[in-house]
């Protein structure tokens, strides 16, 4: 196997950095696998997520910058949300900038004394004091960081956190290049704990292709590009984008509304993908190296003067954020949704978790589990203004209630009551009330994400309640998704990248993997990631599936709780078996006989 992984390691406490090389391409592949390998090496397993020792890792894959849609960066860290190993995937220009800075991964350890911005490229690294950015929102921060390096050549990516990250909210996100995010599991708080306000990656170098395989590379590239641009495989992502799913899921009775009190609403037309496209869509943009352009930017107008004077701003929207601050909060106006999305963006919150947490708070207030004095706003489903006030209080951590809510809806519910209707499956639910298979999949998923196994599709395809079939589906999907995420590829590119095409692409760059090599590596990475998650405290038996998920009417009727808990029990066992296959280096040392 050719070249070694090149990893930049920066310690914010000592302000020192070094470049490390790892000869582990065959074992770690890249992306998810590389991130797990580096996490095991750098993590302090005996301490909490906010300990300065804990690393934050950003890793790209072997195909990054070489093939279309290979545009993601894998961020891994010990999650402030649950204390466990977590991954969050972001796009924008981050992956390409890392590639052209000459690194496969960045590891950040330590804690800066003052609020700091880390900047680096192929030829320089600097750690700048940016204490004057304290409390500043995502957009203003981006503007100032861009001006710190006005003449920066090549590809540049700017990552930053807002107030939510600085205040260590468990679901603070990291904004990437304004319209993309490392959204879930609290990466923003992991950066906040390091006093790290921003990262500027300058892709200011070049990257050589393997001359021996260039002909084959051109051929494989063309084949893959053709699938993407000439077939319908990814067309829907460009047209209406992911919001295309709002009407079908609502019709299916699978779209969560008003804290999952229902799964269907006749007002869907006012927040559908079609409505956004017809009335608010300005343009579609893309992550660097992607011909799809699924990122939809809407126009938000705000009247500020008597004489029809308006401020206008550009806000990105997607299916999940529309579900989070739209249907889940009963907001049925597209401009109302965009208003809330802009607030969420500015403050640096994850739109899904923030929306679901406020949905719980709204129902808790209705049921008098909490008071309006605690929420500091008269929260009502559909009331945009009350949610704007609540989001600000949440990000500012204005009182004890918001401090608990900032640790997640379930933590707040365990404190005040109302656990039964906290829509949390490992973390706040994604927008799929498709049935038992999905509920179990998110609750036990590695990232607690709808993307771990895609079981929402299985729910829609399969009526029969078949535990064996369900587990096989989830395992097959997890296998493929680990492979794709070890390439750091966008999962919207699944149809263009069956396993065979991933292998062809790797070979065309001179990486001499066989199909068997890839299979073996993915199995190892799967065991490795799960083993780290277990070692950092994951106990699947203790993951709750609140009563609301058992009461909800999905398209299949009422949840079959008997089937759901049997499936959960079986899946738990399988995950433990997978994790046990990995042996940690420090455990192997301990088990070696004394000489
Ligand atoms: S399909 Fe969308 S999210 Fe995926 S790489 Fe392209 S622009 Fe980014």
Beta-strand percentage range: 15-25%
Major beta sheet, specifics?
6 strands, mixed
The helical percent reads 40-55%
CATH architecture of the largest domain: 4-Layer Sandwich
Shape: globular
Rg, rounded, reads: 23 Å
Residue-averaged pLDDT: 95
What's the arrangement of strands in the largest beta sheet? Answer: 2-1-6-3-4-5
The CATH top-level class label of the largest domain = Alpha Beta
Distance between the termini: 35 Å
- CATH topology annotation of the largest domain: Aldehyde Ferredoxin Oxidoreductase,  A, domain 1
Number of domains: 3
Number of strands: 19
Query: Which small compounds were modeled alongside the protein?
Result: iron/sulfur cluster
Helix- and strand-based class?
Answer: alpha+beta
Q: Which stretches of 5+ consecutive residues score pLDDT under 50?
A: none
Q: Superfamily at the CATH H level of the largest domain?
A: Aldehyde ferredoxin oxidoreductase, N-terminal domain
Individual helix count? 25
